[in-house]
Amino acid sequence: MITFHNLLLGHRDRTNAVIGKYVDKYKTSGDAITVMIWNTFVLENARDVIAELTQSGAEVFHQAIINKIKLESRDYEAIREVNLDAASKYQQELKALFDRIS
After folding, report:
1. Contact by Cβ (8 Å): 18, 56
2. Tens digits of residue pLDDT in 48-76
3. Is the CATH code 1.10.132 the one for domain 4-101?
4. Mean pLDDT of the chain
5. Tell me, what DSSP letter sits at residue 71?
């Protein structure tokens, strides 16, 4: 039986994979590492990163409905926290890449 905990762990795994995908995309782009390239990368991919993180959170809601899992208000907060943690991790990864440039 699927539980909210299982769904939340899957969400966390998906968000980590999203962040890893975009950081790797930057690292393997083959472009010279410059401030201009970094800025362009951030701007071109921001919408996609946000969309993928949001989609992962929405998947938790859909799976909860399908599996008749009643979500409590703290569950919504947990999903939000996973998204915020992923966004923070992405920000830290981008900062680390930027620090290598400057």
Report:
1. yes
2. 999 999 999 999 999 999 999 999 999 99
3. yes
4. 92
5. P
Rounded to two decimals, the pTM is 0.86
Query: What per-residue confidence (pLDDT) applies to 97?
Result: 85
DSSP the chain: ---HHHHHHHHHHHHHHHHHHHHHHHHTS-S---HHHHHHHHHHHHHHHHHHHHHHHHHHHHHHHHTTPPPPHHHHHHHHHHHHHHHHHHHHHHHHHHHHH-
* Domain boundaries of the chain, sorted by first residue: 4-101
Whole-number Å distance between alpha carbons of 4 and 8: 6
Q: How many CA atoms lie within 13 A of 30 on its CB side?
A: 0
